[in-house]
Amino acid sequence: MKIRNMVLAGLFAALLAICSWISLPLGSLRFTLQTFGVFLTLLTLGGKWGSLAVLVYIALGAMGLPVFSGFQGGIGVIAGPTGGCIIGFMLTALLFWLAEFLFKPKKYIQIAALILGLLLCYLVGWLWYCRFAPMDFFLWCFPYLLPDVVKLFSAYWLNWRLGQTLQK
Fold this sequence. Notes:
Strand content: under 5%
Low-confidence stretches: none
Number of strands: 2
Distance between the termini: 20 Å
Number of helices: 6
Radius of gyration: 15 Å
Strand order of the largest sheet: 1-2
Shape: globular
Helix content: over 70%
Structural class: mainly alpha
Order of helices and strands: HEEHHHHH
């Protein structure tokens, strides 16, 4: 089981990279599927192995592999204006793992943990971004809120469908 989980963590780290490359530019904003990838990873692998997958993804990017949005990589991306969001992905994963540990994996707890994790990701991302260009929190987060909620419930639905398919 441990080898299977390690392989899945590696595959989901690759999925996170692919999700970060898929980008939809709308004006000065860029929407990626990174949060969708984080949500799907955590829901599918659970807190422990999902957190490991997110950590592997971030470590690969920090080493210079182009796994971040816009095919970027390197510690400079993490230290740059959007680095707080990348750190927020790890904090979301750790919060999800903590919620699973404290409350056992129940679906409503998982959804609540992902929503709180998303808000934590917004907060850390905004605080980090404000080091480079101060901006109002709600103006910074508002454009991403609806797409991220859609991504969360899409990941939940896809995880549910995959679970049904794999059990047959």
